[in-house]
Amino acid sequence: MVWPTTVAELIEAQRALAVANPEPWRPGPLTVGGCFVCFPRGHTGIGAAGDPAWAAAVLLADGRRVGRYVVRATARGPYQAGLLALREGPLLEAAVRGLPRLPDVLLVNATGRDHPRRAGLAIHLGAELGVPTVGVTHRPLLATGEWPEPRAGAASPLFLEGELVGYWLRPRAAKRPIVVHPGWRVDPETALDVVRRCCARWRTPEPLRLARRAARTARARSG
């Protein structure tokens, strides 16, 4: 499958993904990946096609990093809410495919069913790669729900038009919660379990934290 290059093509693809019914994934022993893309320091606004970008992916097994890959490329479009795949999708796919192997599950800095057409980038990227995915963001896109209790590991549901589309999760006591989004082939409860496993030390799940650091380090070294 080729990434859409226009808004109309992306919307059509998102609508197809929203009604897809792939076999649910169930975790066993995990290799967990994370991917992240960053743009030039001080970058503000919606950006534009051609913006420099650094995309990184890491692979962890038993908590140890066993793979990392960074690619420098350019964005294919500006940021538009609900259309993030146009800007970041091909960059993240290239970074993940550069790993020594595909992960059992991939953490993505993007939404899943919390999306106007129920198919955010976390779902789209998983479908392109053929890999189960979980989205992790700092806040919901459209969904609503009360914050969880202030204890570590507490979670509370997020709903969009009556549908459970994710969870607030508080990885560390008294710290701001993050949002966990079920992605490709992953249900909300499984997504929550995966992210809890990856938040032993930090608020940001370790695979995403390491991917973010790798992307930003590459940006700094490029000057």
TrEMBL record:
- One annotated GO biological process: DNA repair
Annotated Pfam families: Endonuclease_5 (PF04493)
One annotated GO molecular function is:
single-stranded RNA binding
* Localization, UniProt: Cytoplasm
Which EC class does it fall in? hydrolase
Determine if Nuclease is one of this entry's keywords. yes
GO cellular component terms given for this protein = cytoplasm
Enzyme Commission designation: 3.1.21.7
- Quote the InterPro entries the UniProt record gives: Endonuclease-V (IPR007581)
Which branch of life, at top level? Bacteria
Presence of the UniProt keyword Cytoplasm in the record: yes
- Assigned keywords, A-Z: Cytoplasm, Endonuclease, Hydrolase, Nuclease
Q: Where is the signal peptide?
A: none
Q: What is this protein called?
A: Endonuclease V
Biological source species: Carbonactinospora thermoautotrophica
Lineage, highest ranks first: Bacteria, Bacillati, Actinomycetota, Actinomycetes, Kitasatosporales
